[in-house]
Amino acid sequence: MADFLIQPMVLWALRIFLALLFVAAALSKLRHVEEFYGVVRNFRLLPDLASRVVALVLPVVEAAVAVGLVVTPLAVPAAVAAAALLLVFAAALAINVLRGRTQIDCGCFRNGLKQPVSWLLVLRNLVLTALALAIATGLPAAVPASLTEGATGLLAGATAMLIYLSASLLGGLSAAQTANKTAKGR
User: Fold this and answer.
1) pTM here?
2) Is there a contact between 42 and 105 (Cβ–Cβ < 8 Å)?
3) How far apart are CA 58 and CA 62, in angstroms?
């Protein structure tokens, strides 16, 4: 397994996937800053002022991580930062699930389809954390990618992101349908 994770094509695929994930999250939050502030505040983990600061700073940090993942000299620290962020996100989700606050929006993407927090989202963030750590540990041992390996990794990472976004949208649709059924039943 370790040999697989130091293959240049695999590392490029993981780097592109996570970079696209972070840039999409950052851009969606930047387009909806006030709504995202409400999401952060609704997690009830920070004082109001700190929630405002997080809502303003987090998208910028996510964008910086995305850039760092594709710039080879910055990729290892960016992957460590990505893993740290994803672990914090998993912890915030887990705390709210344990509190029974599963109807709040996860705040992952501001695409109009809200996803309630759940253990599945905690698991998703832990898997993403593992991918970021695979980059951080595998990249120093990897040989540089050839043009073909880099291009294939780029396409694989972009494809993985499209699949991820599709699954996220489907999850949001499912949550919206459940919310509509619940509202009609009242």
Assistant:
1) 0.88
2) yes
3) 6
